[in-house]
Every structure is written in structure tokens, then in C-alpha cells.
């Protein structure tokens, strides 16, 4: 009868609980939540139908299918315009990441890709 310690192996709490609390940090705008929202997906889809090509490549005479819908004014800077079609630009993957690399301060931000 010396097997009492086996009980310790039973997990009493799961890591998922802590992650949920992080997801709804009060005050800060929840970027990933917005990009998963139904409203954004609908606006994005409509925009891509109206503007299917990367506007930057198009300006250079190339028709490149867009893969990202970029916010001219970021959702943090202009929350009221996050679903405003006039605040959106279709960009290809290359132009989009180049634009964000230039906009981000050196050594900071990390993957601040909106889509
Ligand atoms: Zn492009
Ligand atoms: Zn963007």
C-alpha cells in the first residue's frame, strides 16, 4: 500500500482557462478578435470583389491578385473606420508586408500584419 503519489499525476487545471482570460484583455483593442469577426469577413469579401488586384502593383502596370485587405488608417488609430470601404486597400502579399515593414518602428512591433 505505498502508491499514494499516483494521485498527483491527475491534472486539476487545464492551460486553456488562462488563455481565455488573456483573450479579453480590457482596454486594449482586440485585433485578432476583430479579424475573426463576421463583420470584417463580410466587408473584406465585398472589398476583394470590387478591388481584386493589388492597387500598388496595378499602379505599376501589373495585375496581381490581392491577398490582403489593408487598413490605410489602422484599426487602432481609427476604430470608427475599421469597416469603412474607403479606408481599405487591396494589396498582394509582397506589397502588404513591405508596407508594414516600412511603417513599423525598427526593432519593434513584430508581426503586425492586419490582412
Ligand atoms: Zn502588390
Ligand atoms: Zn495592412
Total of helices: 5
Shape: extended
Give the ligands present: zinc ion
Mean pLDDT: 81
Poorly predicted ranges (pLDDT <50, ≥5 residues)?
A: 108-112
- Name the beta content range: 5-15%
Q: Tell me the helix content.
A: 25-40%
**Which structural class is indicated by helix and strand composition?**
mainly alpha
What does this structure look like?
This protein has a two-stranded antiparallel ribbon. The longest helix has 13 residues, at 38-50. The relative contact order is 0.14. By secondary structure, it is mostly helical. The chain is 37% helix and 7% strand. It has a domain at 30-103. Bound molecules: zinc ion (ZN) (2 copies). One zinc ion binds at residues 70-71, 96, 100, 114.
Gist of the model:
With 115 residues, this protein is mainly α.
Features:
two-stranded antiparallel sheet, binds zinc ion
Topology summary:
Layout: H1 16-23, H2 31-35, H3 38-50, H4 55-59, E1 68-71, E2 88-91, H5 93-103
Antiparallel strand pairs: 1-2
The structure holds zinc ion (2 copies).
Residues 54, 56-57, 64, 91-92, 94-95 line the site of one zinc ion.
